Amino acid sequence: MTSQHAPDTQTADPRRWWALAVIAIAQLMIVLDATIVNIALPSAQHDLGISNANRQWVITAYTLAFGGLLLLGGRIGDLFGRKRTFIVGLLGFALASCLGGFATTGGMLFAARALQGAFGALLAPSALSLLSITFRDPRERATAFGVFGALAGGGAAIGLITGGLLTEYLSWRWCLYVNGPIAVVTAIAASYLLRRDHIDRSHRVRLDLPGAFFGCGGLLAIVYGTSEAVDRGWGDWLVLTALSVGVAMLVVFALVERRTPHALLPMHLVRDRNRAGGALSVGLAVIAMYGLFLFLTYYLQVIKGYSPIRAGVSFLPMTGAIILSSAGIGSRLMTRIPTRALMVPGLLIGAGGMAWLTQLRVDSSYAGLVLPAEMLLGIGLGLVFMPAISLATLGVAPQETGAASAIINSAQQVGGSIGTALLNTIAASVTTGYLLTRNAADPLVQAQGAVHGYAVATAVAMGILLLAAAVAFVMIDHRPAPGEAEGETAQAEARAVA
């Protein structure tokens, strides 16, 4: 692979901490947008006359475009410059959000959400890439990734809180409008604060179009299949066809990438056991976490009668625990102990929180059961996201950070899609079986059946976190060493030039 004359990233940027604030805001926008619309969905459905059969497309359109285009978005940043891609992604995200807020029909809202996802696929990998090339000192890198990991883990809960506030006191449209001014201001700040990494035309390599077709098409098919499984079930022909096509396209993608000189996703990035183990562990953790958000949101609003804002605020302790664990504990230990010594205990603590939630009943109290479980989950997952995200780009040559970033982002996006579909399907089928042998007309029995379904699905989520812990223990063997960031980057650049 030829060098693309990436800028010198070894000199510390004096504006790097301001740059972190800009990157963090962008990351928060991306993560919370996956959940902020969930609470606003009933109001949007009513106002725009969206049918029950089509309402899922408010979520699915976003996840399809985002998950399907991540590999391409990451590589575009490598080829044309991360800063430029970051700003274009921000402004495009703002425009798409405002279009969604102005929507007068369901189709217009679906299109705007797809456009949001497409620009999000540009923004997410470039944000992580910029963070990686901005912070090279191991201790500073640990602090920066602690902040980034906290937002990656807690942003979904912040989205639920923000969605509740905006929907209850303003309008569902403000769940989309709010991105506009924030993105514009952040883009202006980024133009001044982020280091220029423009790659001139004479040093650019060709875009891997076959890789883009098979890689993005495979991810898109898998995300679509899992999204449709929510309503159709996993045995439906369309779901099975989409998943089969997706897997087949990814197999072809891997074969194509092995023979392409300018690969969309260089295979040596995937073969690294630490990077692969971190991405797989995070993907499994997200499967469990997104299912949890779904169940607790329904439990608090439908079973306990909480308002949207009260339900959103109920997630605040978990968000605080994630931030404390990631930025306060994980970032201090990341440069001192092996990475799996953070991730494995974190996943086990998270599994303990899930185990606590399996005791959920109709009359369970928030303070006595939900709150302690949230705190355990927050502390545990905070120790997982930060080191895994750091591993995603550690030791990667500057011209490949976008592709490496897309790996962990794809794991999160596909994991979220699978988690919502898989755990929702399990909960629904368990609830149906429960009601078949009881008086299903009784509202109390209906509530008991729903909560029983949530509890069983939560037990499955606990098992998934235990599996993630096993994966992290077996695959991740990274140990911190003084100056490892600089040393590994130099080695990676040497490999890339060779």
From TrEMBL:
Membrane topology label: Multi-pass membrane protein
GO CC, alphabetical: plasma membrane
Domain Major facilitator superfamily (MFS) profile, first and last residues per copy: 19-480
Listed transmembrane segments: 17-37, 57-74, 86-111, 117-135, 142-165, 171-194, 206-225, 237-256, 277-299, 311-329, 341-357, 377-397, 418-436, 456-476
Gene Ontology biological-process annotations: response to antibiotic
CDD domains: MFS_MMR_MDR_like
Source organism superkingdom: Bacteria
Subcellular location as annotated: Cell membrane
A Pfam family annotated for this UniProt entry: MFS_1
Main location class: membrane
Name under which the protein is recorded: Puromycin resistance protein pur8
Native source species: Kitasatospora cheerisanensis KCTC 2395
